[in-house]
């Protein structure tokens, strides 16, 4: 695949950058990216902004990419890395990008941008910025106006005007983009795999204005799954002057709605429906119904936000299937808040084949042993002197984990059991000494090279009042989480050299520990997980 030199054209309203793409089979497509003409001075008029889109297309056409013009070395390296990740997820081809490299000496721009659609994810990221909870304060909002091409022009325009009004309400300028990228990509690759590249290319087009651009997380860390925008890949689209951030992966969508419910004005202007050709929310598709179920449980579902009323029958009879991860996060959140809504979504998941048999369990009362019942009643996390400990056998993975955790979480207590000098010498600390060590810590971790849950270490951690986390590579974590009932996935910690989740706060530690205690039982002196696989 060849990416030719772009050309810039100006109309009364837009600045249009067009690059011709020629595939190895001779097909030609003129890829356009357009932005408000007022931002023409911030445009990167070279080929760099087109590389993410072209690389993803080339990967799915089994081609490499050749670029005529000098481009950003960082974007080239990042695009090659992303296609390697995609190859492990979906079996597409890793791409080699051949291009002259540009000498980039200009400084980063002064602004910080956020892609904003009025959906739950991007509105949550906006709220975090407004509250000062993000590394950079958002100065501009970005919106790709025509990305949902099945929406009629009149409804698309009404939707955009609503988004611009929301931006004005919070005092931020909205920069509209249009592109024909989907006309190029959709025949080649599914949109769920390519949309992150389109966001990256659009932001790189105005890279001179922004030193950072935020992309809101679609899936939380606790439900890992491959997606075109993902915490493992978004930052790799960064150039030398514009960094990409993947924001909000520490929270599920219901947890994001909990935060948004504190700001009713933001809730009233949510736009979560992208199924019906309407400017608002239909109230009948699964995405609308999931949002309505959470808002109803929070007492924040006001008339007028959705065109239809929430009902259990509407949930059970929903026709459109949703990603399994999204269903699981809502079912888990509704547990203990609304059994009727939770059961309706379980029935929906069963009808669409989205859940495993064990996940249909309606939280029947479980026989919890006396020792664990006592542990359930204790609240010890607030009194622990140490945030975390790692008690494990010595291994390459455990040693690397200590380094990552110390860099991200600060100092902890670590004990890596080694090998005795001779057969008569015991190795390391006694069990009682290890218990005392764990008794000082809120969190206990261990490293796993396999893809099975270590139930014995989980029980040992809980017995000593710790939150148990089994750390492992992202790939192994994805395999393990597919096997586990949803309640246990929070205790699997995907960890890579460039990715370590944030340290849970004290309240979150208590919540996780109490929940884990409820999943573990003691019967006749034997430990077993109370999960019905049958």
List the helices and strands and how they pair.
Elements: E1 2-3, E2 7-10, E3 14-22, E4 28-36, H1 51-60, E5 65-67, H2 73-90, E6 97-98, E7 111-115, H3 120-130, E8 140-144, H4 153-169, E9 174-179, H5 181-185, H6 191-205, E10 210-216, E11 243-247, H7 253-260, H8 264-268, H9 286-298, H10 312-316, H11 324-334, H12 339-351, H13 370-377, E12 386-393, H14 396-409, E13 413-417, H15 431-438, E14 441-447, H16 455-463, E15 467-472, H17 474-483, E16 492-494, H18 506-517, E17 520-523, E18 526-529
Parallel strand pairs: 1-5, 5-6, 7-8, 7-10, 8-9, 10-11, 12-13, 12-14, 14-15, 15-16
Antiparallel strand pairs: 1-3, 2-3, 3-4, 4-9, 17-18
The residue fraction in helices comes out at 25-40%
Strand content: 15-25%
Structural class, from secondary structure content?
A: alpha/beta
Sheet of most strands: 11 strands, mixed
Report on this model:
The protein is of the alpha/beta class. The protein is built from 18 helices and 18 strands. The chain has helices at about 50-60, 75-90, 120-130, 155-170, 180-185, 190-205, 255-260, 265-270, 285-300, 310-315, 325-335, 340-350, 370-375, 395-410, 430-440, 455-465, 475-485, 505-515, and strands at about 1-5, 5-10, 15-20, 30-35, 65, 95-100, 110-115, 140-145, 175-180, 210-215, 245, 385-395, 415, 440-445, 465-470, 490-495, 520-525, 525-530. The strands form three sheets. Strands 1, 2, 3, 4, 5, 6, 7, 8, 9, 10 and 11 form an eleven-stranded mixed sheet that branches. The chain has a five-stranded parallel sheet with strand order 13-12-14-15-16, with helices on both faces. Strands 17-18 form a two-stranded antiparallel sheet. Helix 1 (about 50-60) runs antiparallel to helix 6 (about 190-205), helix 3 packs across helix 7 and helix 11 (about 325-335) runs antiparallel to helix 12. The longest helix has 18 residues, at about 75-90. The model is unreliable at about 360-375 and about 520-534 (pLDDT under 50).
């Amino acid at each position: 695949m060849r990416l030719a030199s772009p050309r810039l054209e100006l109309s009364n309203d837009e600045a249009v950058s067009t690059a011709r793409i020629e595939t190895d089979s001779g097909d030609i497509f003129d890829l356009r990216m357009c932005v408000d003409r007022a931002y023409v001075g911030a445009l990167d008029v070279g080929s760099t902004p087109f590389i993410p889109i072209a690389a993803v297309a080339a990967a799915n056409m089994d081609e490499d990419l050749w670029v005529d013009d000098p481009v950003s070395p960082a974007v080239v390296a990042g695009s090659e890395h992303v296609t390697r990740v995609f190859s492990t997820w979906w079996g597409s081809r890793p791409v080699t990008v051949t291009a002259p490299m540009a000498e980039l000496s200009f400084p980063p721009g002064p602004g910080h941008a956020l892609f904003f659609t009025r959906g739950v994810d991007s509105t949550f990221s906006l709220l975090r910025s407004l509250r000062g909870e993000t590394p950079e304060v958002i100065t501009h909002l970005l919106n790709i106006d025509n990305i949902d091409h099945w929406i009629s022009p009149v409804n698309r325009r009404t939707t955009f005007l609503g988004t611009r009004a929301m931006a004005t309400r919070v005092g931020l300028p909205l920069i509209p983009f249009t592109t024909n990228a989907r006309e190029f990509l959709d025949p080649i690759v599914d949109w769920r795999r390519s949309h992150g590249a389109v966001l990256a290319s659009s932001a790189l087009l105005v890279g001179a204005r922004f030193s950072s651009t935020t992309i809101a997380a679609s899936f939380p860390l606790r439900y890992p799954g491959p997606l075109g925008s993902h915490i493992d890949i978004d930052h790799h689209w960064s150039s030398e002057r514009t960094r990409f951030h993947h924001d909000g992966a520490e929270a599920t969508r219901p947890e994001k709605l909990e935060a948004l419910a504190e700001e009713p004005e933001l809730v009233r202007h949510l736009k979560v429906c992208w199924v019906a050709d309407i400017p608002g929310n239909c109230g009948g598709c699964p995405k609308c119904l999931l949002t309505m179920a959470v808002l109803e449980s929070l007492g924040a579902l006001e008339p007028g936000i959705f065109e239809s009323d929430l009902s259990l029958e509407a949930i059970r009879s929903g026709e459109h299937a949703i990603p399994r991860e999204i269903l699981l996060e809502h079912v888990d959140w509704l547990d203990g808040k609304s059994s009727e809504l939770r059961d309706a979504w379980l029935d929906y998941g069963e009808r669409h084949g989205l859940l495993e048999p064990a996940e249909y369990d309606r939280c029947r009362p479980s026989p919890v042993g006396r020792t664990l019942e006592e542990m359930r009643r204790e609240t010890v996390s607030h009194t622990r002197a140490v945030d975390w400990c790692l008690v494990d056998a010595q291994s390459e993975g455990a040693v690397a984990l200590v380094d990552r955790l110390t860099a991200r979480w600060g100092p902890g207590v670590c004990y890596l059991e080694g090998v005795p000098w001779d057969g008569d010498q015991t190795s390391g600390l006694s069990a009682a000494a290890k218990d005392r060590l764990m008794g000082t810590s809120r969190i206990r971790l261990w490293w796993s090279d396999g893809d099975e849950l270590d139930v014995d270490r989980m029980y040992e951690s809980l017995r000593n009042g710790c939150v148990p986390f089994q750390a492992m590579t992202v790939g192994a974590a994805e395999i393990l989480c597919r096997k586990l009932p949803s309640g246990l996935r929070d205790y699997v910690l995907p960890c890579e050299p460039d990715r370590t989740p944030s340290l849970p706060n004290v309240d979150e530690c208590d919540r996780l520990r109490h929940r884990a205690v409820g999943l573990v039982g003691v019967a006749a002196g034997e430990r077993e997980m109370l999960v019905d696989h049958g």
